[in-house]
Each structure stands twice: as C-alpha cells, then as structure tokens.
C-alpha cells in the first residue's frame, strides 16, 4: 500500500470498503509520542489474544508481530512502512519494536474499537475455539 498517500490511496479505500473497516485511528509508538511508553511496550509484548480481528497498517517505521503457529511455536513477522496485517480473532500474538524504536500505524476496526487484550491462557473464549477449529480444518 502507498503509506505516503494513505489519506487518498484507492487501494486502502477498497480494502476498507470490502472488509467493512468503518473505524480507524493512527498511533505513534515512540518514547516521545506515546504516553506511558514503557508500560505500553511491555503490555504489547505480553502474549495475548483479542475477540476481534486486529488490523494494522504501518505508515512509518517498523516492528515485529509474533504469532503462534498450529504447533504453538513463534513466527516473527517483520512489518515496515506500507505493510498491512490482519491477525484473526483468537490468535495468540505480541508486538515489539525493532532497533529503530519507532512505528506509526493505522488501527482499523469493523464497528466501534475494542481494545481488550486477554493474556494467555485465554483458551475458553469462543474466538479462541473458533480459531483453533480453523487451524484444524486447514491442516
């Protein structure tokens, strides 16, 4: 995606329309820009899941999303300017910055945003069970 022109990017607009991403905001994760930076960085790195998809579009900077595979092993996903990721509801994950210690990201949601993270273990949620069923069906 064209992160330099995200406000007018027709590809982003098409994705938002097709996926019904009706809400968005922009967050900058940097020690000079994010209140309670140290606390939030630690929170982002705690292994957790959400009950809704997590959609992030990197507008500037870089970082890593770590996700668990079907064998419960970590997979590190490098994200940089122009990348978009959708983490499905129920997937265990975490986020960390790289050595640049800076990322500016768009957060997208279907409907109103829900920020609740459930730290592992959180296996009893329907979203987790549905995600695990998806993994089983795909195998």
TrEMBL record:
Keywords: Amino-acid biosynthesis, Cytoplasm, Dioxygenase, Iron, Metal-binding, Methionine biosynthesis, Nickel, Nucleus, Oxidoreductase. Its cofactor is Ni(2+); Fe(2+). It catalyses: 1,2-dihydroxy-5-(methylsulfanyl)pent-1-en-3-one + O2 = 4-methylsulfanyl-2-oxobutanoate + formate + 2 H(+). It holds the Pfam family ARD. GO terms for cellular component: nucleus; plasma membrane. Its EC number is 1.13.11.54. One of its GO terms (biological process) is L-methionine salvage from methylthioadenosine. Its main location: membrane. It is an enzyme of class 1 (oxidoreductase). It is found in: Cell membrane; Nucleus. GO terms for molecular function: acireductone dioxygenase [iron(II)-requiring] activity; metal ion binding. InterPro entries: ARD, ARD_euk, RmlC-like_jellyroll, RmlC_Cupin_sf. It is a peripheral membrane protein. The keyword DNA-binding does not apply. This is acireductone dioxygenase (Fe(2+)-requiring). The lineage of its organism: Eukaryota, Metazoa, Chordata, Craniata, Vertebrata.
């Amino acid at each position: 995606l064209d992160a330099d022109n995200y406000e007018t990017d027709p590809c982003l607009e098409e994705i938002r329309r097709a996926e019904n991403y009706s809400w968005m905001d922009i967050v900058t994760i940097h020690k000079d820009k994010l209140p309670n930076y140290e606390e939030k960085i630690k929170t982002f790195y705690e292994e957790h899941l959400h009950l809704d998809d997590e959609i992030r579009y990197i507008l500037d900077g870089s970082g890593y999303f770590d996700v668990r595979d079907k064998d419960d092993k970590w997979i590190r996903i490098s994200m940089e300017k122009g990348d978009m990721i959708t983490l499905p509801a129920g997937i265990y994950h975490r986020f960390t910055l790289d050595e640049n210690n800076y990322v500016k990201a768009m957060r997208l949601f279907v409907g109103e945003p829900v920020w609740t993270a459930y730290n592992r273990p959180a296996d009893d949620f329907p979203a987790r069970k549905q995600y695990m069923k998806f993994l089983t069906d795909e195998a």
